UniProtKB/TrEMBL annotation:
Belongs to the LOR family. SUPFAM superfamilies: Tubby C-terminal domain-like. Coiled coil: none annotated. It holds the Pfam family LOR. Gene3D superfamilies: LURP1-related (2.40.160.200). This is Protein LURP-one-related 5. It comes from the Eukaryota. InterPro entries: LOR, LOR_sf, Tubby-like_C. It comes from Panicum hallii.
Length: 242
């Protein structure tokens, strides 16, 4: 009997595939409701996720706080909401399950995770240097982001503790594990690297793709798109399949 696929469920088990997953993410403007990010399954071409901005009159608008970002599934249901914590010296963002309505209304909904820049000294450099802490009940461990999101060359790394805990505490991970990676998109027909508005999100088999998309949303807000130097100088080698 084969070994059971390890899963890292943070947002929902339905977002944890049995194989490595590759999403093509298209970045748009935030000037109109529903714009922001759209993610498509590379194999099927089907829409997997999109982003709605709260407080702009969109379908998730209503009484929501301006600036909140909702990650919607293919059916348009909010699966994750990210919100900037104020005040915050390190540009900290919290992620809430669903539309985050309870927390937004002064309730006691706890965030699933919290992400922050590891140091204010790195602000504006383009280096990711972002730490993500799991806050959900029973969750443990930390993730960090290496590389540069503005260059579309960075990876999400799970600490050995977080990866071992995902196996119910039975595993003994000795090293950190790359669970997701952002990289430039290559046009397979023209064999050219596409612009930064279209990029690839690779997600390791068993890892929560919705959580990975949530980290992408936070990176987009924390690091922006400012790039210093030559875009051709990638700070990391890709670890996902070509």
């Amino acid at each position: 009997m084969g070994q059971q696929q390890q899963q890292v469920v943070i947002v929902g088990e339905e977002h944890c595939g049995g194989e490595d997953r590759e999403l093509t993410v298209r970045k748009t403007t935030l000037f109109t409701p529903g714009d922001g990010l759209e993610a498509y399954d590379h194999r099927t071409g089907a829409l997997a996720f999109r982003v709605e901005t709260y407080g702009r009159g969109g379908e998730c608008g209503g009484g929501a706080a301006a600036g909140d970002l909702a990650l919607l599934d293919a059916e348009g249901e909010p699966v994750l909401t990210v919100r900037r914590r104020r005040p915050s010296l390190h540009n900290r963002w919290d992620g809430f399950l669903g539309d985050g309505a309870a927390a937004r209304g002064g309730g006691h909904q706890k965030p699933l995770f919290s992400a922050r820049r590891s140091s204010i000294l790195g602000a504006g450099t383009g280096a990711a240097a972002v730490l993500v802490d799991l806050l959900a009940p029973g969750a443990t461990g930390e993730f960090h982001v290496d590389g540069s999101f503005p260059r579309r060359c960075c990876r999400v790394v799970a600490s050995a503790k977080a990866w071992a805990a995902a196996d119910g505490g039975g595993g003994e991970a000795e090293e950190d594990v790359v669970v997701a990676e952002v990289r430039r998109k290559v046009d397979e027909d023209a064999h050219v690297v596409m612009g930064r508005d279209v990029f690839v999100l690779w997600v390791r088999a068993g890892f929560d793709a919705a959580f990975a998309m949530g980290i992408v949303l936070v990176l987009d807000r924390i690091t922006g798109d400012e790039v210093d130097g030559d875009l051709g100088e990638d700070p990391l080698e890709t670890t996902s399949p070509a």
